[in-house]
Design brief:
10 helices, about 20% strand, alpha/beta, Rossmann fold, two-stranded antiparallel ribbon, globular
Length: about 325
């Protein structure tokens, strides 16, 4: 049996347990008399280098119980690819006439610079600049991590201080290029030095990585995955199609690193205690294609992962006292 097949076999028990738990949850969920969350809204954030970053915010009605989820697309995609999943997380189905079993999530989908509606910047002389991702250099992709995600963090910080979400339970989902941005952002988040006056950083508690690459457009993961907090302190869902040899090689390398720090647990404890879930799927589909395909229920797996590793975990809400 080769290593890829061993990966699939190793995850069959976890898949079975999660599928059973998901089916039970879906069967129990119906319409609810709880007020619906506010409607999604398109917003514009300004980065420190004056790029107009467009996002869609799907607010929660769960207040400080809301898990924030940031979704980052692949190269040449836009935030629109995540709309169905974002709405599903914002509007979890609940038991008929009863309290919600799963709280509404606060979701942010992002058009990273040079993509979608985030193609306008301002030059040092004040003139407008059009951003074309097809012409980006490595530094432009690295600015997605350093500047785009900084603007998103600032937005989430304001929502946290307004009592509309719990930033201490942050999940970042990325596809392809966006998965690399997510990992590097998490490394920056955990590298922030603690402050005596307020909490700073160490907010990313879960990463959902759809077909990440070891090296993607100047976004190299070697140092991030060698950083102990990234290895140990974050829960992971990794999904990819095994029929692409290059993607498979990269994802198996990532799994090899993470499995040292996230050992498998007995199948009956997997939905609550396991912190690394790997879905090596028999397909050539990758990235957001895995979400849109009905064959693998990846969106449902993501929802269950967020509930198990964030919704049911005790990461306290902490106001951030800004100067």
């Amino acid at each position: 049996m080769n290593d890829v097949l061993r990966t699939i076999v190793r995850n069959l028990s976890t898949l079975a347990v999660l599928a059973a738990a998901s089916a039970a949850g879906v069967a129990a969920r119906g319409q609810s008399n709880i007020p619906a969350p506010p409607a999604p809204k398109a917003l514009s954030l300004t980065t420190k280098d004056n790029v107009q970053l467009r996002i869609t915010y799907y607010p929660s009605n769960a207040g400080v119980q809301a898990v924030p989820v940031v979704m980052l697309h692949d190269f040449n995609e836009t935030r629109a690819v995540f709309d169905p999943l974002a709405r599903a997380l914002q509007h979890p189905r609940t038991p008929e006439g009863g309290p919600a079993k799963v709280a509404s999530r606060a979701v942010v989908t992002v058009d990273l610079r040079g993509h979608g509606e985030s193609k306008t910047g301002v030059a040092p002389d004040g003139s407008p600049v059009e951003l074309d991702a097809a012409r980006f250099q490595a530094a432009d992709f690295q600015a997605m991590v350093a500047l785009d995600m900084e603007a998103v963090r600032a937005f989430l910080l304001d929502e946290n201080d307004a009592g509309k979400l719990n930033l201490n339970k942050l999940c970042v989902l990325g596809s392809g290029m966006g998965a690399n941005v997510a990992v590097l952002f998490a490394a920056n988040d955990w590298a922030m030095p603690p402050l005596a006056v307020r909490k700073q950083g160490q907010d990313v508690k879960a990463l959902v990585l759809l077909s990440p690459r070891w090296r993607e457009r100047g976004l190299y993961l070697k140092d991030a995955f060698a950083f102990p907090p990234v290895q140990r302190n974050i829960s992971y869902l990794l999904a990819y199609g095994i029929e692409d040899r290059n993607v498979t090689a990269d994802c198996r390398n990532i799994e090899r690193i993470l499995s040292k720090f996230h050992p498998a647990v007995p199948p009956d404890r997997a939905p609550t205690d396991q912190s690394l879930f790997v879905f090596a799927l028999p397909t050539n589909l990758q990235g957001t294609q895995l979400l849109t395909s009905r064959a693998f229920s990846v969106g449902l797996r993501v929802a269950d992962f967020i509930e198990a590793r964030l919704g049911r975990q005790d990461f306290p809400y902490i106001p951030r006292k800004k100067k």
